[in-house]
Design brief:
Elements: H1 16-28, E1 29-31, E2 37-43, H2 47-57, E3 64-66, E4 71-77, H3 79-87, H4 111-122, E5 123-128, E6 131-138, H5 140-152, E7 157-162, E8 165-170
Antiparallel strand pairs: 1-2, 2-4, 3-4, 5-6, 6-8, 7-8
């Protein structure tokens, strides 16, 4: 797929699958700040997930392996897709400034699928003694967005600050 291709997957978030992959890219994707490059890199155990993303995007780009990090990576160029992602809040250099999407970016009826995608990228589940704990690491704004959603469906959660990040924990 060349830079001239127009990829419209994220122009309108109107399916569960689009919402999921947008959430996943919020967590683990990279949008170029100077070039029209979108990239997804994951641990070698997650190769199948990169293949699923490639299929969703309907691209044929090669998935490359990096021995030094034991990870797989796929990238492609599309000015349209880059701009659509930015419009949906998936911005370059997002780690410390990421904001939870508004309803124009991700409709309320699809937000749970967006959160599912984000959780697959930056969430974890742990069991201590008899207690199961689900956590997501992100910015303060993003964690509050998730907490507000969880509150609206009567799921208890709390947010705490840990080093330079915020963590939302489902309790």
């Amino acid at each position: 797929m060349s830079a001239k291709n127009v990829l419209t997957n994220f122009e309108i978030i109107d399916t569960e699958e689009k919402a999921y992959w947008l959430g996943f890219l919020y967590a683990d994707g990279s949008v170029g700040s100077k070039e029209d490059k979108i990239e997804l890199g994951l641990a070698e155990k997650d190769l199948k997930h990169i293949e699923k993303f490639r299929d969703f995007m309907n691209i044929t780009n090669k998935i490359s392996y990096r021995e030094s990090t034991r990870s797989y990576r796929i990238s492609f160029r599309s000015s349209k897709c880059k701009q659509d992602l930015i419009n949906k809040g998936c911005i370059p250099k997002k780690s410390l400034i990421l904001e939870f999407p508004n309803e124009k970016q991700v409709p309320n009826n699809l937000i749970k699928h967006f959160i599912r995608g984000y959780f697959d990228g930056d969430g974890s589940i742990a069991k201590n003694k008899n207690k199961v704990r689900a956590t997501i690491i992100s910015t303060e704004d993003f964690c509050w967005g998730i907490k507000n959603y969880l509150d609206s469906i009567n799921i208890n959660s709390k947010i705490y600050h840990c080093k330079s990040q915020y963590v939302i924990e489902i309790i």
